[in-house]
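Standup notes
- DV: blocked on the single-chain target, sequence here:
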Amino acid sequence: DFFGKGFVTGSQGLRLQVDALDGFIGGHLSFSKNLSENRLIGRLRILHHSAHLVDGHYNVSDGRWIDNRTPIPFTRDFGEFTLGHVLLNPSGSLRYYAGVAYAVFVRPDDIGRLSYLGGVEGTLENLLGPVMDQPSQLYCAYHISLTGTPVYAASNQIQLGIKLGRWSGRGTDFYLAFYEGRQLFGEFFDQRLTAFGAGCMVDFF
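- DV (later): unblocked, structure below
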């Protein structure tokens, strides 16, 4: 596994202003066991997470970091185990899961080493019928995580959308999402964020 995300706060001409970058590298093992009309699923992953402030958070004319917030050495090396259960039905599915993570190394020291997660996701596969010659699924999902920074607090995310294509295969997903919880970028780990947005995602496989 290797992926990253950037915090874009504006633009100057054709240049995006990127305040922060988070990078992840590691790997995972997953399993799935079919039962009569349901499925047991699980995942174990090990990741290195590092975070960095970049030039979009620096005011060149003033010669200082915005909000006087200077870069910190943020690192989190952790393992995470998640176990879930999927209930299958011709008209849709219901999935619920829970997990726990432990970090063997954190910077700064006031980040909690233990964290917890859970969630539920429901789909309705035949309510709308085909859309643009593609099968469609309405879905609603809720995810909660509990992290310490250093006081433990919950982060909540709700997502409502429609996927064109097979639910577990290729297709395009259009959604609305609401998030309330810890800031999503490591350099701002001690801040809270409330946000609402819309988006789309393409599954190629």
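- Follow-up: The two ends are 16 Å apart (CA to CA).
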